[in-house]
Structures
1.
Amino acid sequence: METKFYEKDKLLVLKITEEIDDHNVKKIRGKADYEIERYMPKKVILDFDSVTFMDSAGIGLIIGRYKFAKIIGAKLEVANLSKNVQRIFEMSGILKLVPIWDVSQLDILSN
Amino acid sequence: MKEDFDNEMKLEFISKSSNEAFARAALAAFAAQLDPTIEELSDIKTAVSEAVTNCIIHGYENKQGIVKIMARLKEDEIIIEISDKGKGIENIDMAKEPLYTTKPNLERSGMGFTIMESFMDTMEIESIVGLGTKITMSKKIKPKNQEEEDNEFQMITKQ
């Protein structure tokens, strides 16, 4: 996982670089919660750009991080969903709680 | 005697979660003989991953056991059987309900069977409490038209 924190906007971008399944998700979950607690952001973005595989473990991952972010008063959004990832999230209805973040905003932030 | 399928493979491994990636990669390599699209292959990998994960965390509840996979190719179809000799499912109808899970504390979503059903053409569950569970799934690989094949070729050669 690659972490980037934008101090001014209190925005934490967590780029997942592993395949998301039951085996890897424990590690991803631990790292994500650690980074959220460390930076105390206002908004957390989970970036799926480098995710080459995801099964239903990804739904649990989002629901769990949504709850954790809520505890510290942060919002959770997801970005760069592949067709397959988006389909799995749509089936679970989770996108009603966790919006898709517009990645073009990232260019504005990094400039 | 001539079998009524074109190809067959069998795979057996212990119920370690690190084998989930191994199982779906092996099945994808076997299914590749039917010349599936990237999307069809991704559907098969996801369904296999769900079924194998179920064997490991629900069937054996993370204790050691054996997960068995048998796959066959018949014309344009792949048939996959994934089984365990674990605890079995008490109520199959309930287990199939979207969002139903017996393990919410592990952040399980309860979407496994729903995903298998919608990513494959058919999905059947046979289970006996105390003896184990067998999932049988099948998917037909659609014949590709020339345009699709050209597109896919361009995608691959661009990389």
Note: Chain B has a mean pLDDT of 92.
2.
Amino acid sequence: MVLSDGKGIGKVIFSSSLGTLIEWYDFYIFGMLAKTISIQFFPEGNDTAALLSTLAIFAAGFLVRPFGALVFGRLGDMIGRKSTFLFTLVLMGGSTFLIGLIPGYRTIGIAAPLLVLLLRLIQGLALGGEYGGAATYVAEHSPTNRRGYYTSWIQTTATLGLFVALGVIMLVKSNMSDASFTSEWGGWRYPFWISILLVIVSIYIRLKMSESPLYSKLKKEGKASLNPLKESFGNKANFKMVLLALFGAVMGQGVVWYTGQFYAQSFLENTVKIEFMQNREIMLWGIGLATPFFLVFGALSDRIGRKWIMLSGMLLGVIFYRPIFNTFLKDTNIKEWKKMEGDATPTIISKEILKVDSLPIDHVLATVTHSKIKWQSQQGTGFTETRADTILNVGATPGVTKEDSKPVFTDKKLSSPMKWKFILLVFVMILFVTMAYAPIAAFLVELFPTRIRYTSMSLPYHIGNGVFGGLVPFIATLLSASSPTDPLVGLWYPILIAALCVVIGTFYLTNKIDKNIND
Amino acid sequence: MNSLKKIMGFFWMTLAPIVIYLLIRAAIQNIDSTGTKDINKPVPWIIIITIFTPIAIGLMIFGYYSLKGEYDHLPESSDDL
């Protein structure tokens, strides 16, 4: 039995998507507030705290997420979709709320980072179990000709979760001073506390839902799997489809997703050095404008098949990532900004001397002046220049000034037209994400039989997104270390993985939509 | 097309150990007690190599299946699985 009437399926989609969105929100706020969390729980100079911090970052995404996929996938195939993804929601919401209640390192010492690590691992575990359940649940309620469209609502949740997390943090931060936000019991905890309200609402809604009709039928007929792990990965015919799903689709989708939504933000902030709030504004607009396209490509996949839409998203990423990121750099080149004329000419609006050092250089007394200069143009562009100029004094003779050849430019503020250009570029990258990601739930659901669907689709999904996608910043740092002069070198990892996936997907995948998932 | 898949199968089988070799080599080159970045710490490398080894083995198996023609015809329905 599938639900074809608007109200019934609407309720299924809403209740499933809301819970999944909240889980993503919970998972993201930790990453977005990592700097503050690190100050409160993982202080510098303490080796144990540093080790726990590294574990919290790497183990939660790489190890625990796929493990959660196995644990909860198995449960979902054995006891049902509804109870399993209800349980993951409770685990995720509970651990997020508790993170917001843990006193800082200064109050309870090493217990603080230990508790945070434990709760972060539970978050990773829960996330590993949630998505497969929600996607399977919606797909098993959907008619064949709308499966791509209906499951694409679930696909919007990862992006909307990021959007809500960004929005809540910006809202809290804009209403208080930096000191109030980052203090031990400061505003950074509010996003964690808000989570409990969202989770309670979502649990209430999910409790009213009934079990997936396909799974209920299977269970009634006594055909539910007794050992989903063995059937998924021990049966060669199914295992080869798990491998195909991973290497031919999800691996590439994972890196495209991560590059568009996370790497872009961190590149704009850390490499391009755009001012904090404007960077968030660019991301919010880009994400917000592109999100409806999940539904567009989900619906399109019902008409023309899943394969070519997903692979096109990846291929476009392969082709356009370097030109797009290069434009970010070129357009924010301060040397070019300083050459601009008319309203665009930046002028100094304030200059602050940070410190003055007197030291001998080559037997000559030198004065090094460290200063912070704020520039702004009438067009709205602005930036902060931090520089160290040296004056060489020979005896009492006025010295020769040696200007800093490598001043540091930060807090770059774009003019309105340039900001919109950046929003457009972010939008384009999220559009690639929507192409690669929108049809993937329907694609995965159609690949595996009902009795082991939750287990079989969850593992490749979380390896593709958690491991391949999650490795983007680490490999980018690794590549930058080996080629420090090329700021775009970090892009080679997502480009190569996506290209590999396009090749495998093109030759090995079929574009046929499985009409009958009731088996 | 199927003969191309067989040739690619050999490539996937070869690629897997190369990836693991490159990861181990990068770990040895970058782990540095004086460094401050994540790539200088041993823990991320241990986690990444631990999780990537079974993935690379999966890629080898994928290549092997491809070489043996297991992907020449994909299953039409779940009964084939």
Note: Residues 2-71 of chain B form one domain.
